[in-house]
Amino acid sequence: MKNSLLLVFWLLFLIPPFLSAQISKKGLVAHYLFNADAKDASGNNNNGLISGGVFPTKDRFNNDCGAMKFNGSDGYIHVPHSKSLSSPQSEYTIALWFKALDGSEYSDLQWMTICCKSNIRDETSTSPQFRLQSTRYTVSMNTDFTENFDHKIEFNKWYHYAVTYDGDYCRVYLNNKEIVNWAYKTEFSPNQLAMEIGRDLPGIIEYFCGVMDELVIYDRALSQREITSLYNNQSEKTSKKPCGFSPPITIPKKNLNPKKENSSNVITQSLTSNSSNNEPCSSHPTFVNEDTIEYQQIVVVDNPNIKLLFYDAEKEDGDIVSINFNGAWVLERYHLKRKSTQKPKQLNLSLIPNFENYIFTKAWNLGSIPPNTLTIEIIDSNSNKPPRIVNIKSDIGRSGAIKLIYKP
Which CATH number applies to 14-237? Predict the structure, then answer.
């Protein structure tokens, strides 16, 4: 028995602090791991709906699909109102890991629009109920509280950021250090509005340009010790990242079937907006696995619901492609034939309004006449206009792509 106790003691002593660090469940309202989705891990079911330019990207541990990138122009996550989301009224904590990116309208201010408990334009005492919005010079918790200070951050660098309010003081932490505090006394007036992550709609609309990960919201003020626990927690370093992201579209998501293929030919989808360390804001992925995505055309359509036909309009030479629409694989290892030889594969797609929807291809070979060529026929059944014919050329290591735009 004595030996067993000694063994337990030494095991506890040897466990690194970052492995034993736990996320406190007391007062936890929402917890977003952003592992290629906007699901709430708190148990409160505050799951989000992705809108516009929000894409999975690498996290601070360099794991693919471990964080979410916001494009700074139209990307945000909508979280429907719930009783738990209204619970931060006398205290709150909002904390996350973030990486600010250059290239947005407010880059000079290093604008950080994290979350806002409102989805209407009016800014009042109840809209928003609460928010976390910061710039290099300010931090804001609601309509009434916006304080000035200077906390310059660098682009393309990960930071842990936390703001707490205990009913008497607002405290700001950067990388586990309390950098400023203010005396403040108020109540957050509850509302029945949705929460938005990455967009602050009341007053002037602001979007977040950067990457977020491990966002937590509490209805109480965490202690310094609890902030340290969040900062030291590295449980996401080795957690499974389900690469295979799909925005909220009406077609079902399909994954490529790896059966009967060599491991070198199997796609494990990993969309990123840029693979470099100095990535700008971008609303579209520029890499998929090791392939560069090359956008070759922009097509404007009059109807959000379109029909697409896929075939080889040139000499039939054995081209094989897989096709991705808005982050979801919708056609896998399709052998392209001439339209006169074989009835083309047909897909009915619904476009996201006011967004640059995209289609890119994965070339599995180059056929006997390089490069790999795909013809897409775009049909609008509600229009008398003739079908649009678009050609996409792809190569090994280079995925051809187009953008599709529908503006109501």
Answer: 2.60.120.200
